[in-house]
Amino acid sequence: MTDAFESFYSYKPSLYLQYGRRLLSVNPANGSQTYIHNEGEYGKFYGNAPSTCILKTILGDNGNVTKTFDNLEYLSEVYDTSKLDIFNETFDRLRLRNEYQDTGLINLTNNTNIKRRMRTWRTYFPRAVSDNKSRIRNPWVELTLEYDNNANKRFVLHDLIYSYTPSPL
Fold it and tell me: Strand, coil or helix: what is 27?
């Protein structure tokens, strides 16, 4: 309907119910409890503690070309419960991996290894953890971004852009 990616969730209820414009589901841990979706605190499901938001995507346009992955930039917004824009908050961790290289989870620290300029966050892709020297090279890579939403904040991600250097043949 929106012609856009919506999301996947870590919970797996056994039953979903539509009630008017609301979506209900049965708590997978307690079949006598019902949960109303898209109401209540962000990142909190079935009364449990807020969970970490994890975004995983494959980067790899022009799949026949081996690339050295260089930089990532994206536009994101974080709002508190009063709908105030928290301009200096973004993803907490980043990871790149392919079938033979892995950066491990890297903590993102504002104005250290990630910076925001003109509303766009920019960071470089880290080196492989195996030797802390090798750059990530492959036709594709899996990018993981994590956000710890422990204060009922609304996180919106817009454009996700990456740059790479094609490897010579």
Answer: coil
Q: Which two tokens stand for residue 52?
A: 């970490």
Nearest to 126 by CA among 146, 144, 106: 106
Identify the pLDDT of residue 67.
94
Per-domain boundaries in the chain: 1-39, 53-166
- CA atoms within a 13 Å half-sphere pointing along the CA-CB vector of 155: 23
Per-residue pLDDT tens for 152-168?
Answer: 889 999 989 999 999 87
Phi, psi of 34, rounded to the nearest 5 degrees: -115, 145
| Token digits of residue 150 | 């422990």
Q: How many residues does the chain have?
A: 169
Residue 75's nearest CA partner among 116, 113, 19 is 116
Burial (CB < 10 A; 0-12, 13-18, 19+), residue 72, is: buried
DSSP structure class, residue 8? -
